[in-house]
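ugh ok fine here u go
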Amino acid sequence: MDPLTIVINEGAYGSEKPWNALRLALACTSEALRMEVNIFLMGDAVTIAKRGQRPPEGFYNLEKMLGDLIGRGVRISACGTCMNSRGLAQEDMVQGVEKGTMMVLAKWVKESHTLLSF
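structure:
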């Protein structure tokens, strides 16, 4: 099966777009569908993968959602240039999120059947 690639551009908790993108990825990787999914974080979206998030009680937790997706085999890459410009290093990121490049994204785009951008 050809993978689905999801590109997220918006920062953590600034809008519901990142949450909805991760919800979709969770649905696609559910027992019922078992799709192969890649997620590429660009621009402010790299903050989604910052370790140590503390959202208010009862609010969705993007860090936890990423951990669940990684546990399901989803490949998650954060733009290295975007991380650097925001002062984020690999050790600041959720375990399993890789520092990526445009070549990683280009390869995923080439291999994917569907590309979605949030």
